Every structure is written in C-alpha cells, then in structure tokens.
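Researcher: Next entry in the queue.
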Amino acid sequence: MMDYTDRHCRFFLRLLSPNTLLYTEMLTSAALVRGDGARLLNYDQAEHPVALQLGGSDPKELAIAAKMGADVGYDEINLNCGCPSDRVQSGRFGACLMGEPALVAECVSAMRSVVSVPVTVKCRIGIEPMPQAEDEFVFLRQFIQTVAAAGCDVFVMHARKAILKGLSPKENREIPPLKYDVVAELRKEFPKLTFVLNGGVKTVEEVTKHLETFDGVMIGREAYSNPYLLAQLEQVVFDPSWTLPARELVIEQYADYVRARLAEGHRLRSMVKHVQGLYAGLPRVRSWRRYLSEGAGNPTAGADLLLDALRIVQAA
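Model: Structure for this entry, 316 residues:
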C-alpha cells in the first residue's frame, strides 16, 4: 500500500473504525535510518492501534528502524516479505526474501531484541521461481517454521504466490490464483501461531466467513476504494451496538484535520485523495470524485473544499 496508507489516510480511516489495526505504507529501513526518519514516522495519536511496516534485509539496520518506530509509539513492527515489485526486489526485500528464510529469521530476531512490541511478518504463500526444486507447500512450511523459531508468532498471509519475474505488482494482485485453503492448512499445521488472511476479500460477508477459520483478516485495496466497509466491519466484528457514523460527519471531522495539517504545510491534494471512495456505490459518486480531484488542484482551495463537495452527494 505504498503511496496509499500514509498518515492522512490512516487518520481518515480511524474516523470510520475505532478498533481496526491500521498499517503504515511500507517504509524502508534505509530511508528511516539514513534519511528523515522523524518525518517519515510522524503520525497522529488518534491512529492507534497502528503498525509500522518495514522493508529491508539488513538485520542491524532493521533493528535500528524497528526501535525508532517502537520509541515513537507504534503498536507493532511488521516486516514485508510479500511485495513483488522489481524496485523492491532490487533492494533485496519484499517477496524475494521468502527465498531466504534464514535471513528473515535473523531480521526478526534482531528486531525483537530491541523492541517490546510484537514483530510480525507479511508474506505470500510462495514465490516463483522457487529457490529449490521442491514441493510448494514444503517450501512454505519451512519458511514459516524457520521464521517462527526466531520468535515471530503472527503471519499475515497474502493467499497468492508472488511471480517475481514478468508480472507487475498490479498483475501479481490479480493473476496468481487465490488459495485460501493453503493458509488454512498452515493454520492446522501450526496451531500455536496466529494467521491473518489477506487477498481478494471485499465484503462483510467474506470477512465473517473467513474469521471462522483464520485469526484475522487484512483488507488492503478494497478498504481504500470503499473505506466505509471498515465502518460496517467495526459494527459486525467489534461492537454490534456501535452506531455507524454518517459519512457527512466523517467528512466534517476530517476537514478539521485537513485544516490543521494545511497550517503545517501539508498539501491539500495529498489529503483529499483519500476520501474519494467514501461514497462508493452511491449516487453521484463520480461527480463527488471529480469535484474533489479538480478542486484540490486549485492553489487557493482549502479544507472547505471537502464541505463544499458534500452538496453533490446530498443533492436530492
């Protein structure tokens, strides 16, 4: 979710769901350790619970980055072993790390040695090509076993293989078939570990069904394109007595946040883009999106753009 779940997006999503665990976009350990780590790690306290997702393969550097995140209050450190992009692979992190389970275990161990919050791993159910000519499930089981031995007991499993050559990141989210049964088999083999399912989940009904088998469900792109889904899940999964927030109220609250961030020098467009899916599936949503997209480019526009846009979706 790079370029999507930034701090502005996470604040907006928190207005829709008080209890969902939110994840940062993947931040490289190099950027945090050698760059402007304070700026990259900055977030609003309202975002809790929030996990910091790291990309990297240098155990010492990851340990420093993990401690930086824990020191500023992140609730979890997650190591990305699932992103298949060429750019990520060139840096020797993401999905290609599944081919080096001993290194992943070393990274997990290094991070756990310096933080008290959970260190978790997000990965795929396999990679292609595999480093050895062996059974795919044996490969996956050995990866989980090796990393778990280093102290990781939570695995977020994207239930697709990652094709490391020939497919774009978008194609890697669509072309490799979903195999939820593989993750279910893992959960049987490792009953003491926690398995969170990811990939292709789009509805409340699907989430509730999967929670009968898995310990949790992670939703990525669908939560961005249809964020009100998180509010519906808050009510169904966490608290049936919780009242769904009116979309208009969410926009009014977010407008206050946007106004405060604009005063700090943040760009309007970078904040407005995250709310465009709030009215997904409802009348006049295209006009809503267009008004926000075009208006955010006006150099004189401010937080009131969000409030003005409400007249479009409130029109009779």
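Model: Residues 247-263 form the longest helix (17 residues).
Researcher: Noted, moving on.
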